[in-house]
Amino acid sequence: MDPESPSGAQRYHHLDAARALFMLLGIPFHASLAFAGGHWLVMSGSRDPVLAVIPPLLSDFRMPGFFLIAGFFAAMLLERRSRGAWLKGRAERLGVPLLTGMAIILPLQAAILQYAPRGIVDPAAAAHPLAHLWFLPTLLILCALLAAVWPLVARARSFAAPPVIALAAALAVYELGLTVVEHLLHSDLSLLGGYLDLRSLAIFLPFFALGVALRRSPALWNRFARFDPAVAIIGLLALVLHVGLWEDRSTIGIALDILFDGLSSVCLVQTILALLLRLFSKPSARVDRLVDASFTIYLLHHPVVVGLAILCITAAVPPLLAWVAICLGAFALPYAAHRMIRRSPLALWLLNGVRPQQRGWGLLVGAREGAPA
């Protein structure tokens, strides 16, 4: 797709694929936490050295990429809708699944945890009120902030596009500064019993804003559309250093870990998007099915991961084999559930925020747009 040749009949196939990829990577991420030796809902009591690498590896770019794409599509839709209508639509598309998750999915997960053997469940992790749904209120707040400043954003017709490496370095310094602020405030920036997570809001705000800028700036779009070997190499090296420093609790180790994390996040997200543009520039029925199901899969996978992890740990299944089995089950069961859910307009509305009278591809309803102008 030529980013400078808009066409109303085109869709950002590679961004749809990236959004689905980032959401589906939540399955191997959460499945690995039970065996990584840290604190999660379910703990095996041991640390597998291979699976312990997955959390820092995937957390580096998965959610940053998701919020960047969310910012891009938010700006795209705001260009053709009033702020009030758009914000109302966001509240429905994100708020309804959040309420459904809090009313059905999280209680189901809590019930599963109650049947876990003693010593497997981490009470502190289980006490989090939103679990894997934390990103929905964060995204809602970011949407509200964008709607508030949209008149200013709309006036900025063009601006210089800094190199990707410069953006990555700036983000790294920002994340280090945020950690310093948390230390000075002696707070994790969590309010209202965990329902309002200011830390997540502050961490992902720059990525959401970068997505908005990506939509508004053809020059920045072109930078992100081109594969740059230097950016990829720097991102991979920073990722290796970040993973290596993940468990270093010294002051210098923590500071370096944060810097490498921020540097690799932007570089790797840009690299992934550029590669996906080459691979998924044309429509694919298989990819569309995954994109359509990705949100439902993410909502439903978490209690499945928890339940399967409890079974595998109780049965003393080897960690790597257990991880593979959990990943397969946590994809297949929610995917099958989505194929049933999309037959019901009410169920699709409750879990995807798609109005019952709308038909078609769940999350892809109304997603066709041109490229940045």
TrEMBL record:
The keyword Transmembrane helix applies. The chain crosses the membrane at residues 21-41, 61-78, 94-113, 133-153, 165-186, 198-215, 227-246, 258-281, 293-314, 320-337. It comes from the Bacteria. It holds the Pfam family Acyl_transf_3. InterPro entries: Acyl_transf_3_dom, Glucan_succinyl_AcylTrfase. Keywords: Acyltransferase, Membrane, Transferase, Transmembrane, Transmembrane helix. PANTHER family: BLR4337 PROTEIN, GLUCANS BIOSYNTHESIS PROTEIN C. This is Acyltransferase family protein. It comes from Alteriqipengyuania abyssalis.
